[in-house]
Design goal:
Length: 146
């Protein structure tokens, strides 16, 4: 196993807004989206401890990634913990854990995503490129809802 991946972002909104936007349908779709034409994101969510959130995303129908998250912790507006299985377009899959925290900082939120158990450095690097895009798109969703 590789070391955990940790990415932080200060978002200009209080934790309640950031948490609620992330957990709403539009926020979940935004976090996994891309600004590329044709990018696909589909989400189904049973948001409760033990509930399942499935999200399918990718550049085309023939090249989709599937995440199956099980909610282990939902502590609004502070923390979410997910047990995740990622199935890749080539048919391979792996399990890992995601912890999201939402910490108040002078009227803003320090949002942190920690992914643990990524099996290779290459997958860790791939996820490290994707999470900042998720943060940027979530921030846009927050701004557009105000």
């Amino acid at each position: 196993m590789t070391d955990e991946l940790r990415i932080d972002r200060v978002i200009d909104a209080p934790p309640e807004i950031v948490f609620d936007t992330f957990t709403a349908e539009d926020g979940r779709l935004a976090f996994y989206g891309q600004d590329e034409p044709g990018w696909i994101v589909e989400s189904h969510c049973d948001q409760r401890v033990g509930g399942v959130w499935t999200i399918t995303f990718g550049p085309s129908r023939g090249r989709l990634y599937h995440h199956r998250h099980i909610f282990e912790v939902i502590d609004r507006p502070r923390r979410i913990v997910l047990a995740t299985t990622e199935r890749r377009p080539d048919g391979s899959s792996f399990d890992f854990s995601i912890e999201l925290t939402f910490q108040a900082q002078a009227g803003k939120t320090l949002m942190t995503v920690i992914q643990s158990g990524l099996p290779t450095a290459g997958l860790r690097a791939e996820h490290a490129r994707g999470v900042p895009t998720g943060f940027a798109r979530l921030e846009r969703a927050i701004r557009s809802s105000r």
